[in-house]
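Tutorial, part two.
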Amino acid sequence: MSSSVTGVIQDLERILLTPAQISERVDAMAARLNAELAGKVVTVVALMDGGLFFVADLLRKLEMPVRLYTLSASSYQGGTTTTGEVKVNWPANFDIQGQDVLLLDDILDTGLTLSAICERLLAQQPASLRTCVLLSKRRERLREVPLDDAGFEIDDEFVVGYGMDYQGRFRNLPCIGILNPNPAS
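Running the prediction step on this input gives:
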């Protein structure tokens, strides 16, 4: 690891998931999707920016043809707790009617973001909709959302790394960790 990343890791209270643990789980998730979606052309709808690393790593392991749409969606707007309002930027000419859709996100927390996205996707009448997240927090959901696959279940803590951020920082960490209450950098 570079000295700059090592310095940022010092801002973590603890490492929750190592790069090796993440890689192993993403491999297992891809294997499951390859078996379940074999022979189909899949339309992937990926939520960014937090899901960037997860989506890139997972998509490189999928063996079926894939169409990719990326959405920017958030209910955090820079803090550590949800604002309760989901903001989504939908691409122009977005049409998934009759397609097999795989919705990917970094984390399922309150359920607000995924449920809002699922409602909009289902309104377009896809042939199927499958939801997959890297992390699912053990907590009461504000809105229930169907979840087909979660890489890890974690406690209800604010996490950073592997694409997830706090105020735009820490996305580049190769691990997932719990941020110190008062990060130094």
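Strands lie at 12-17, 42-48, 66-74, 87-89, 100-108, 128-137, 149-154, 159-160, 176-179. In part three we will examine how such features are distributed along the chain.
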